[in-house]
Automatic annotation (TrEMBL):
This is KfrA N-terminal DNA-binding domain-containing protein. InterPro entries: KfrA_DNA-bd_N. It comes from Allochromatium vinosum (strain ATCC 17899 / DSM 180 / NBRC 103801 / NCIMB 10441 / D). Residues 8-117 form the KfrA N-terminal DNA-binding domain. Keywords: Coiled coil, Plasmid.
Length: 321
C-alpha cells in the first residue's frame, strides 16, 4: 500500500476517533488530528470512507458520488459556521467567565477584607470587653467606696445628731444648774432664817426638856406603881388561868357526855324513824287493801242492783196470752 493509502486509512481512523470523542469529523479536524500531515485528496478519501461506513452502520441510503463533494462542502461550511458561532459564544462565555473570575476575585478580596474587618472588630470587641470588665471592676470599687462614704456620712450625721443632742442636754443642764444655783441661794437664805428659828426652837426645846425631865420622874414613879399593879394582875391572871383550866376540863367532860347522849338519841331516833317508816308502809298497804275492797264492794253492789232490777218493757212486743 502506498502513501496515499496509508494517509486514507489514517484519516478514516482519525474520523472514527473524532466521532467517538463527540466531535464532527471534518477535513480540517481530521488533518489536525493527523498533525497536519497528508494530502487533501487522501484525507478527503478517508473521510468519505468514514461517511460510507457510517451510512452502512445506520442503514442510510448511499449518496451518489456527485453529491458527496457537495455534502462534504456543505458539512464543512456548516461545521465552519458552527465553529464560528461556537468560537463567538465560547469567547463570550470566556469573557463572562473572566468577568465572573474577576467578580469572584473581587468578592474574595471583599471577603478577605470583611474577614480582616471581622478580626479587627473581634479584637476591638475583646479589647472593649476587657475595658468593660476593668470599668465594671472600677465601678464596683466606686460603688463599694460610695457605700463606705455613705456609711461614714451616716455615722457622721449620727454623731452630729448625738453632738447636737448632747449640746442640747448640756444647755439644759447649764440652765438647770443656773436654776439650781438660784434655788440654792434661795435655800441658803431660807436656811439662815430657819437657823434663827431653830435657835429659838432650841431654847424652847431646852425648856421643854426640863419639863420632860420632870415628867420622866413622874412617869418613873407611875411606872413603879404600874409594875406593882402588873404583878398583882399577873397573880390574879395565874389564878384565873387555873380556874379556866378547871372549867375547860369540866367543859370537855360535859362535851363528851353530850356527844354520847347525842349519839344515843340519834340511834334511838334512827330506830324510831325505821319503825315510823314501817308503820307508814303498813298504813299504805292497808289503805291499798281498803281501796281494793271498796272497788270490789262497789262492783258487787252494781252487780246486785243490776240483777235485782226488773227487765225493761218493750212496747213493740205483744203480751203473752
Amino acid at each position: 500500500m502506498g502513501a496515499h493509502g496509508d494517509t486514507r486509512t489514517a484519516a478514516f481512523e482519525a474520523a472514527c476517533q473524532l466521532a467517538a470523542a463527540g466531535e464532527r469529523p471534518t477535513v480540517v479536524a481530521v488533518r489536525a488530528k493527523l498533525g497536519g500531515k497528508g494530502g487533501q485528496n487522501a484525507v478527503q478519501a478517508g473521510l468519505n470512507d468514514w461517511i460510507a461506513e457510517a451510512a452502512k452502520r445506520f442503514q442510510l441510503p448511499g449518496l451518489p458520488e456527485s453529491l458527496q463533494m457537495a455534502v462534504i462542502a456543505f458539512w464543512d461550511v456548516a461545521c465552519q459556521t458552527a465553529k464560528t458561532q461556537w468560537d463567538g459564544e465560547r469567547a463570550a462565555l470566556l469573557s463572562q467567565l473572566e468577568g465572573r473570575d474577576q467578580q469572584l476575585a473581587e468578592r474574595t478580596q471583599e471577603r478577605d477584607a470583611l474577614e480582616r474587618e471581622r478580626d479587627e472588630r473581634t479584637q476591638a470587641l475583646e479589647q472593649a470587653q476587657g475595658e468593660l470588665f476593668v470599668a465594671h471592676q472600677h465601678t464596683r470599687a466606686l460603688e463599694t467606696e460610695r457605700a463606705d462614704l455613705a456609711q461614714r456620712l451616716a455615722d457622721a450625721e449620727a454623731r452630729t445628731e448625738q453632738l447636737e443632742q448632747s449640746g442640747a442636754e448640756l444647755a439644759a443642764r447649764v440652765r438647770a444648774l443656773e436654776h439650781s444655783e438660784q434655788r440654792l441661794s434661795e435655800a441658803l437664805e431660807r436656811s439662815e432664817r430657819e437657823c434663827d428659828q431653830w435657835q429659838v426652837q432650841a431654847r424652847t426645846a431646852e425648856q421643854s426638856v426640863a419639863r420632860l425631865e420632870q415628867a420622866r420622874e413622874d412617869s418613873e414613879r407611875e411606872r413603879a406603881r404600874l409594875a406593882e399593879a402588873l404583878a398583882q394582875s399577873r397573880s390574879n391572871l395565874e389564878t384565873g388561868r387555873a380556874a379556866l383550866a378547871e372549867r375547860e376540863t369540866r367543859i370537855t367532860t360535859l362535851t363528851d357526855l353530850l356527844e354520847r347522849t347525842q349519839a344515843t338519841h340519834e340511834a334511838e331516833s334512827a330506830h324510831w324513824l325505821l319503825q315510823i317508816d314501817d308503820q307508814r308502809q303498813a298504813l299504805s298497804e292497808a289503805r291499798e287493801r281498803e281501796r281494793r275492797w271498796n272497788q270490789e264492794r262497789t262492783a258487787l253492789l252494781e252487780e246486785i242492783r243490776r240483777r235485782s232490777a226488773p227487765p225493761p218493757i218493750n212496747p213493740d212486743r205483744e203480751p203473752e196470752r
